[in-house]
Amino acid sequence: MGKNYRRDYMALQYIHEQEKRGLNIKVDTALICASVLFLILFAFSGWVQVQLHEIDVTVAESRAELDAIKEGLSELRGRIDAGREAAGEGEIGNNPQALRASSFRKEPMPGADKPAEAAPVYPLTDAERDIIAAICFFEDRSGGGMGGMAAVAEVIFNRLSDGRFGENVAEVCTPSQFHGLRQLGTLPITEDAYTAVRAVFDEGTDAGTLGALYFCTGSPDNIKPGLREVARIGGHVFYID
Predict the structure, then answer these.
(1) Which residues contact 3 (CB under 8 A, 6 or more apart)?
(2) Which of 41-55, 59-73, 168-182 has the lowest mean pLDDT?
(3) pTM for this model (two decimals)
């Protein structure tokens, strides 16, 4: 009987020891887990602090750049205001609409003098303009268009400048020099012909004849010997001697 009690006591003590050891293991495991979790949280908090510091640095740099931009804009506005004041247009720095209007204004201010029109390269009377436009129109019946008519007008201009063909429009623009005048009165002269005359005689536009004094719209056999071809425009061939 005494042996049985002793054996039961030892069994209970063994069980108690095992439970105690198991509890210790659980406590140790919990402590280890808690320590690992603490280390993870500590490391994460450190990373968060680093990121926050970098964000603060970036924000500070952005604010510095923004301040520099504002300072540059303020300086530019001051220069614009100073320039406007020097030009006599008054303060516009605090009026963005006035700044835009003055920057893109294309029409002259009321009361301002309009620029004088350029003087014609070769002044023409109305009658002279009519006769030259008629020559351009009838000589260009081959379909050279505006370029062809301007080229004919330039030949007339070249002959007037040369002096060998006459001293004025009346002497140069004759049916013997320009056969197209023989058709004068058969058709109305188009506005394009007058535009070609204005381009050459008023504005001095280069029609591309390279100083030609002669041109041919038909067979080159009609051109006197010794002439040299310099250009082809529309249906015309242009020559110099």
Answers:
(1) none
(2) 59-73
(3) 0.52
